[in-house]
Design goal:
single chain; Nucleotidyltransferase, domain 5; 6 strands; RNaseH_sf; RNase_H-like; alpha/beta; six-stranded mixed beta sheet; globular
Length: 164
């Protein structure tokens, strides 16, 4: 089974970090979303937490192929070993261990515009605590955007690089 995973982080100095992600199949159909309020933390760490959360959920769900997209170039560089930043960090080590398991993980850096749905998930911080909130279907306020993207009407302009 193949999963397409997009992650996004929103960050504000007064509010802290929030992350979200969405899993889609190879045709762009939604099958799981998640959001988390992290609190005050470095934005790069929040991005790495979102990547870790998504990869762990994909592994537990039994997916054998994952295409991971992030709009954070530094996070992509760190987890694809093209950057030595945060070498030895437990979170980075855990992400690299997940990527190295018996499955196929491809990592892409994408432009911000490609993450509209995930951006809206990450902004859903009301009522969230540090635990994950899982969404088996798109929340009502973003369902139309999910449908637009599925139909191919949404903008998908972005740069892709950083493949594992």
């Amino acid at each position: 089974m193949m999963a397409h995973l997009e992650v996004q982080v929103l960050f504000g100095a007064s509010v802290g970090g929030r992350s979200g992600g969405v899993f889609r199949d190879e045709f762009g159909r939604w099958f799981l979303g998640f959001a988390r309020f992290v609190g005050r933390c470095d934005v790069l760490i929040v991005e790495l937490l979102a990547i870790h959360d998504g990869l762990l959920q994909a592994w537990v769900s039994g997916y054998s192929r994952v295409e991971l997209e992030s709009d954070c170039l530094e996070a992509v560089r760190i987890i694809t070993s093209s950057s030595s930043a945060l070498d030895g960090n437990a979170l980075v080590v855990s992400i690299k261990e997940l990527i190295g398991r018996e499955w196929s993980v491809v990592v892409h850096h994408i432009g911000y515009v490609n993450n509209r749905v995930v951006d809206m998930l990450a902004s859903r911080d009301r009522g969230l605590d540090v635990a994950h909130t899982l969404f088996s279907g798109p929340p009502a306020d973003i369902a139309s955007i999910v449908e637009e993207e599925l139909a191919g009407h949404a903008s998908t302009v972005g740069e892709v690089d950083g493949i594992r």
